[in-house]
Amino acid sequence: MHTGRAGFILSETMTVTVLLFASYADALGKSAIELDVAPGSTVRDILGTLLAMPGGDRLPPRPLVAVNREYASAATTLQGGEEVAVIPPVAGG
Amino acid sequence: MRVALVDCPIDVSSLISEVSDDSCGAASVFLGCVRNVNDGRAVTGIEYSAYRSMAEREMNAIVREAAERFGVSRLIIEHRLGALGLGDVSVAIVAAHPHRAPALDAMRFAIEQLKRRVPIWKLELYVDGTREWVGSGIRNRESGVEAPDVVATRIQ
User: Per the domain annotation, does A1 fall within a domain?
Assistant: First the structure.
């Protein structure tokens, strides 16, 4: 629970770190974003926020995502503090 | 078993020495190299980047799975990152075993899995001075159509 400057109680949020790579980092013009989101948010919610950002329209609607370095589905619920990586099509080798 | 992301040239002969011993009748080596053409465009080099911590995790998972499937515990995957020139080795996979079939199978498995799931990306540089992320998954602004390779490589 946080107290605002004027003493009002603000609703609790949680923070996740979103990592962007390669073409997706170019599209949004950054490689890491700290997002404050509502408790109970899912990967799908995070993607919705990203796609609404400037340049987000260039991402595919359902990109690959990893949560804490493991591939995860859009339905994955976040607890706060996670590293959410949006993974462009991989091209190693 | 060992995996590594490296920023310097890959020394293939030292990897073979490291992975083999006198019990090994076979050592199988795969090298991925920078090619001078892609999709009909003349390439001058490739810049490799990665989500390092996850890439190492996935590569470690691949060598564990190879050990379970093929009984090959002598397996090394090294992938180079950074700016590479034509002919440079970008990835080396070395598998050793008393017999050739498991060594060959484990090597093939490791490179196919690496290409499918390890978060590494290529920025290709072309003769005309342009550059492009390979299979970028970026939507075409005009059509808004998702590139087919995005669908093909998505892991459910």
Answer: no
Size of interface A-B (CB pairs under 8 A): 108
Say which residues have a Cβ less than 8 Å from residue A68's Cβ, sequence separation at least 6. A82, A83
Mean pLDDT of B132-138: 89
The total of structural domains in chain A comes to 1
pLDDT of residue B140 exceeding 60 = no
Question: Looking at the domain assignment, is residue A2 inside a domain?
Answer: no
Bridge partners of B49, per DSSP, are B121
ipTM: 0.87
Question: Could you tell me if residue A23 is inside a domain?
Answer: yes
Model confidence at B48, pLDDT cuts 50, 70, 90, reads: very high
CB contact under 8 A, B138 and A87: no
Kindly list the residues from chain B whose CB atom is less than 8 angstroms away from the CB atom of residue A17. Answer: none
Q: Is the pTM of this model over 0.95?
A: no
B29 forms bridges with which residues in the sheet? B94
Question: Which pair of tokens denotes residue A17?
Answer: 């770190």
Rg of chain A (C-alpha set):
14
Is residue B81 a part of any domain in this protein? yes
8 A C-beta contact, residue B98 and residue B116:
no
Cβ separation of A92 and B91 shorter than 8 Å? Answer: yes
Region B131-143: what's the mean pLDDT? 76
Closest chain A residue to the Cα of B80, Cα to Cα: A93
pLDDT band at A6 (very low <50, low <70, confident <90, very high): low
Alpha-carbon span B119 to B121, nearest angstrom: 7
> What range defines the domain where residue B86 resides?
2-135
